[in-house]
Amino acid sequence: MDFLTSLHISGTGLTAQRTRMNVISMNLANVNTTRTEKGGPYRRKVVVMEQESVEDFDAVLAAQSESESGCGVRVADIVEIKRPFRQVYNPSHPDADGSGVVMMPNIDLIAEMTNMIIARRSYEANVAAINAAKGMALKALELGR
Predict the structure, then answer these.
(1) Which end of the chain is less congested by CB atoms within 10 angstroms, N or C?
(2) Collapsed DSSP state (helix, strand, coil) of residue 145
């Protein structure tokens, strides 16, 4: 694996984890949103990631011959989770039905915070990989003096 490939892989990881953190932040911001433009409560969203595909034939052959398993990651989609909404009894809420039940978003605060920590740690790991590659490149340049 060369220097630019390692930077590309870590760079795609940074982009994907930043998108993941943005979606988690959106979920946390809407944890109490009972009315959206679509109607009904906010639905939890998650990021679906997949391996970045290699576009040209030569790169595929090079990856096969060097036994490289991937060339990065990309965000394939952002999907809404269809899990049922939480039902909370609050007859004074403006969105309560006839029996006083309010449909709340299907967001678990603890799960979202855990996912945020995981995404942040993944982001930090990609930054560390970039810094390590940069350090190795600088040391290799020093050897050439």
Answers:
(1) C
(2) coil
Cβ neighbours of residue 138 closer than 8 Å, sequence gap 6 or more = none
Please, which residues have CB within 8 angstroms of residue 99's CB and are 6 or more apart in sequence?
none
The domain locations on the chain are 3-31+45-80+107-143
Q: Which pLDDT tens digit goes with each residue over 56-103?
A: 666 666 655 554 556 889 999 999 999 999 999 999 999 999 999 999
Contacts of 10 (CB under 8 A, 6+ apart): 126, 127, 129, 130, 133
What the block records as the tokens of 134 is 């940069």
Predicted model pTM: 0.82
Q: Can you tell me the distance from the alpha carbon of 39 to that of 25, in angstroms, rounded to the nearest whole number? A: 21
